[in-house]
């Protein structure tokens, strides 16, 4: 089982404080994907960016970056589908 280290940006931390259920689902999905190789989770690579991915959880999106092969996840932002891509640059 690989160890997953998660760093949250300020905006992601603020979002996850309000939506703890989404945070728990995000963590469970990460464990499932990177430890059990589950492919049923909606994760896509962001076009024109290296090692940046988005995960769909209900009507929300979490954008994160994989730092290295030890699976250090840096959550860049999280939010509603309609707003998340406007704030991401």
Describe this structure in words.
This protein is of the alpha+beta class and 89 residues long. It has a single domain, classed as RelE-like (YaeB-like fold), CATH 3.30.2310. It is 37% helix and 33% strand. A five-stranded mixed beta sheet has the order 1-5-4-3-2. A hairpin with a 2-residue loop joins strand 3 and strand 4. The chain is globular. The mean pLDDT is 86.
Largest sheet: 5 strands, mixed
Rg, alpha carbons: 12 Å
| Average predicted confidence as pLDDT | 86
CATH topology: YaeB-like fold
Please specify the SSE layout and strand pairing:
Layout: E1 5-8, H1 10-18, H2 20-36, E2 43-45, E3 52-57, E4 60-66, E5 72-80, H3 81-87
What is this structure, in a nutshell?
The chain is of the alpha+beta class and 89 residues long. Helices cover 37% and strands 33% of the residues. It is built from three helices and five strands; from the N terminus they run E-H-H-E-E-E-E-H.
Characteristic terms for this protein:
89 residues, five-stranded mixed sheet, alpha+beta, 3 helices
